[in-house]
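Incident log, structure service

09:12 report received: a user says their structure output differs between two submissions of the same chain.
09:20 pulled the input from the user's history:
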Amino acid sequence: MGLKEWFAEKWINIGAKRKDGSFEPCGRSKAKLESKGYPKCVPLSKAKQMSPSEIQSAVKRKRAKKQGVGGKPTMVKTDAPSRSKPSR
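09:34 re-ran on a clean worker, output below:
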């Protein structure tokens, strides 16, 4: 995927679900800095593939990290690390 396609995708905040079941667009205004925490933004196509528990896990991991270290955005993986069985 090229940068042009990346910008053309619809990005949503999976941490801000509306009452009608849709999600708010990605980003936040200064007025919302303290109300709901930092946004966890993913493309709409990715969000549709995620289960409610996967969404909750991704948002929880994002908000658990210290935000804005060194003036840079904090990134966390959308997919939880898989827990593999210990080899014997």
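09:41 both user submissions now match this output. Likely a transient worker issue. Closing.
09:42 reviewer note: DSSP finds three helices and three strands in the chain. The mean pLDDT is 82.
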